[in-house]
Amino acid sequence: MLHTRHWMDCGARRLNPRVQKRNLQTLPILMRKKPVNTKKNPERENRITEEIIVDANGPEEQAMGWYYYLKDTLYFPFTATCIAERAISPLRKGDEVEVLNMAPEEECQHEMFVMIRWEIRQGLAVPLSLLRPITDSDEDTIEAVEDWHYWIDQGYVL
Q: For a pLDDT cut of 70, what percent of the chain falls above it?
């Protein structure tokens, strides 16, 4: 077991002092996302495991499974509403945006991003987890975005 002193010497001095006191074995637990919704949806779980991340060995392949599922299922362009705010996005809760397509594959290794029309720019990548398609969007689009939200809400990570 590695002690706090070892990983502090590796540049971790910038961490919160409470985190510095914990040993390295607990660090992954601190980084894991806490589930928002713990209630499982068997139908959605089955679709995710049998269609989206089937045969995926590791996070990189899961990310590619999600990327191509969303790219093939979402009907672009569609209008969506921002449902949450994050520091990495200029969107504010309630903003309505036009989603143009998926962000480039290399941007989606740890989270799914979509390109939106933003001001004069033709595309700005924002996390799909911040968006909800408006109700008159294509049913498959709504379901695919809900699948991604479910994945995130369950605390799964890529």
A: 76
**Nearest residue to 129 (alpha-carbon basis) of 65, 75, 84:** 84
Per-residue confidence band for 34, with pLDDT thresholds at 50, 70 and 90: low
- List the domain boundaries for the chain: 1-32, 42-153
Single pTM value for the model = 0.76
3-state class (DSSP) for residue 36: coil
Q: Coil, helix or strand for 99?
A: strand
The sheet that has 131-133: what strands, in order across it? Answer: 121-127, 113-118, 96-102, 78-82, 131-133
What does the DSSP 8-state code read for residue 124? E
Is 7 or 68 the better-scoring residue by pLDDT? 68
CATH superfamily of 42-153: Calcium binding protein CcbP, beta-barrel domain (2.30.30.530)
- Give buried/exposed letters for 74-103 (b at 16+ CB in 10 A, else e): beeebebbbeeeeeebebeeebebebbebb
